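Re: weekly structure request thread

Next one in the queue (1053 aa):
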Amino acid sequence: MNRFKTSKFKNTTPKIAKKDEWINNVRAGSFASQGNHIKASSKLVAFNTEQAGGGMLGLSSVQPGSDGQRAVTQISCHSDLVTDMDFSPFDDSLLATCSVDETVKLWRLCDLAQEQSSSSELTLRPGQGRLELVLFHPTSSGLLAVGTTKSAQIWDTNCQEAPLAVLEQHGDQVQSLGWKLDGSLLASSCKDKMIRVFDPRAQLAPVQSAKSLQSNKDSRILWTKDDLLLTTGFDTMRSREARLWDSRKLTSSLGSVSLGTSSGTLIPLFDEDTGLLLLAGMGNTGIDCFEVSSSEPFLSQVSHCLTDTSTKGVALVPKLALDVMSCEVVRVLQLTDSCILPISYQVPRKNSGHEFHDDLHPDTVGTTPAMSAEEWWKGGNKQVERVSLHPDKRAKQKAAPAKQTPAKKEVASGGSKEDQARDCSTSSSPLSTPSSSAAPSRSPSSTSGLSSGFVPSPSPSQSAKAFQNLMGPTSKFRHIQGTVMHRDTHITNIRGLNLTTPGECDGFCVNRQRVAVPLAISGGQIAVFERSQPGKLPDTALPTIQNSVNVADFAWDPFDTHRLAVAGDDAKIRVWQVPEGGLKETLTEPKIIMQGHTEKIYSITFHPLASGLLVSSSYDLTVRLWNLETGKQVKVLDGHQDQVFGMAWSPDGKLLATVCKDGKVRIYDPRKSTSPVQEGPGPEGHRGARVVWVCDGKYLMVSGFDSRSERGLYLYSASSLSSGAVSSVPVNVSPSTLIPYYDPDTSVVILTGKGDTRVYIYEIVPEDPYFIECSSFNSPEPHKGLAFLPKTECNVRDVEVAVGLMLTKTTIEPVAFKVPRVKKEFFQDDVYSDTAVWWEPALTGSAWLSGSNGQHKKISLKPKDMTPVSEAPKEAPVRKYLPSSVYLEEKTDEQKKDELLNAMVAKLGNMDDPLPQESYEGVDEDEWAKYLAQIVVMGVQVVGRAFARALRQEYAASQAAAQARGRSGQESAAASSITGISLQEAQQILNISKLSPEEIQKNYEHLFKVNDKSVGGSFYLQSKVVRAKERLDEELSIQKKEEKQQSQQNTET
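Done, posted below.
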């Protein structure tokens, strides 16, 4: 009997949305990862983009806004490619992401009209390399499955110290994970062709496994009905196929379908309520729909949808977001290169759009979790309560009270299950679902001890703090934009650039007037370019500075734009004086040669306040202080056990910080001691590091590497180095050291490495979370260095906060970093504080060595003709709605009538001006006045524009009639069609003209066109009477002419 049974979904038809309903402005990238590249909740859509190397996700809304459009925004999630993402089934705003940077982050998304938080609510570090998959549990809140390279882990976000379970290692890369619909089992597909089914609460080894896949190419797995598993992959002939399996017997499949040969991964999507399966191939334009059955035939095709663009990813929209009144049973979002296409699957029904069909829309799973992660881990198997899809029966979701978000935490794997269970029993979830009863929210009354049901309203400062806690810390520079300036400012055609400078060297150096660039020419040659002379350099050889040995590092004197110090491999420091106007000839003789180191020099740094002071580090493990006025060394600092990676003077010029390969960060007071006054642990990696003072000298920021060679930023308190880093933030994996530039006016640090294409930007604050990530800048090609100019080079009218020069293989390009602002006509004094004149010395080197201290003077960047934005006149708020008295005022019928007449008179314009038809011969003035009066009376029923338009038509008809009367020649009543009305029709209209408009419309509807009724309603009917009268007058005049002519002919005869 079953084979003759028909399905109610057999006629399900795909319907591609119109172009104005597409989500545009999408820049989807092509990335090698195991995710579907797009996921949707009932409210939001998240998808991979090509921006920031794939570390940034795009966000849009499922439903269009009031204007019919869907806004698209971005959120920076990871420092590297986002490999997978998933929305919580119980919270439309909770998104989990995993990345190549080996972290899992949970994000609390807000409305798209607001700014997304730059900090995640939670960061997990499973610790097994690159992460590929992340998947929420279908019945429990706060439970995640995370797929690493060769394993899967189960995490409870309430218990953040370690995973609940680390499943047995797979033989190769894990390609897909899938929870059973009741949440009891987890299935995986692997590159070793194995299908595994785990019961994580019973054992870490799989309860079922079989080598069932035929190819090791990319595969996907998901649970369908009951115990049925579906896999997609490739057969031995490299043809894409989908197979259905009984999870209790994986040795042979129940059924399969082949979908042709193609290299793109086949992504499956399954709808539990209807049993419909959607299959979309990556890189293809088609989407196939099948119905899954637990008996023969197991897979029956329903439809095939063909789109215009190739697929980058697909996602199912949750059932609660569907238009059930239109018999929509499934909706798919197709991600393409530039847009997202909604595809609606609808079942044709006679009363579609007016009636809810229970057979098509059974009760679906709701948004309240059945249990907590702890309850599930202890053996619970409760199911999510189902809700009706009927619009009148849906329970209105109550708004959840805002709760305080905990401080951002980074979690590393480790610990036993016993410890985890103990921790879970005493901790509350930072990511509890609003509707979950497992973690009751804190209310003000619960902590204040008040027995009253009324809670005092918080103060404005408390409200602001609560809002910040909810949304996370934000920075006024979070939307900073980097822009390469016009090509006219570039220096191009640079030849022979040295691309192998030591790691301690910045690659090149700049000042306000010129740029020094190392060349890959024997003799340690350095080219000097004038910033005032941009353009293409000549092909011929240029004058250079010849050092005769390889260059290790070089730097401009901050107080003399003509003096360049160069450290060489011969342990000597040469000081060169560039002539006014730049190099005219090759320089071979330095002004000063300083020698004291016994081995090769690492780096050199000028003192920030005192003129003529220079510090250098060397392979002889010493740091030496030099006085350029005498050309002699004045201090030798010791204490380093290995290579010195970087040095930095404190803002007041009193202290010197170093970071060393021996894993230590040190602070020296050179005038008091040659040994470090403080010492503490630094980054664990040995690739390289840099150090810079931040937050008015209260903290040290170090950019370095961890033990896994991942780049990161570390913040140390300058008063307690021995305590270690107070905060750290991972960046990404790359071999080059991040070179920092710190702006003390904005507390923004800009970092990039030699050979990178991305520039990272953070605001550093002296309190948790310390690092606030801002928008990054990406260059079109790898750059060899980025150096910055004084603050006076910034165009404050365009809100530029930093201007630098970017060195590429053949060019030097200025880059401006701007803060987007609306009122650019005002000086943004909240962005521009008084800046230090660091290009002028505060004291001499000799004075500093003798114990004196100085301080830079400060200047304002405000132009004289600009007003600070803080003093800008306040705009008077525009009242959005009229006072309530206007709406509450009752108007009499006479008042309403007067207002309507006044409105009609106003539309008619000035009644004293001559009307156009007065220059034509028309009906008698008395007749016209009578008809016009009738029109005005009937026009009272008309509102606004319809009356004016109908009246203009009446004037045009009258004018046409007058023109026709002036024409010469014999006219026939049968041939006349001046007014567009036949004689018979005109007589009928005049006979019924005394009836009411409603009676006319009811009894003589055939006399009037249906589409003309919208022109003027009953006023249009009255205008027909006017035309009919003119038609009869015209006929009478023609008859009189004919009679007159006849009488004249009779007289002549």
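The two ends are 102 Å apart (CA to CA). Confidence is low (pLDDT under 50) at residues 397-430, 432-471, 964-979, 1007-1018.
Next request, please.
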